[in-house]
Amino acid sequence: MGEARRCTRSGCSQRAVATLTYVYADQTAVLGPLATYAEPHTYDLCGDHTQRMSAPQGWNVLRLAPDPAAAEPTHDDLLALADAVREAGRTAPLVPTGERPMLRVVRGDG
Fold it and tell me: pTM for the full model?
């Protein structure tokens, strides 16, 4: 796994916990949960800078609170993943085509 992303504020070495994005067309600053990937034109902020963040005068600040329940996979997510694996097993070729397969399909009687 990669190293935790750091706050992008100059001189700060704290771990980033939120991502700030400016929507210039709407004059809105959006502060939300840490983005999955660092993107150009977004700013990762630590907890301290998240609390002290302000936008240009006349702009709106939209703070999106993370949903703790969304961080964990749900029962439906796990069932969908299991179904996708089963479906891939049904459509995967059983005979390798010159390459050693990374996964093998093992058929059961149940």
Answer: 0.58
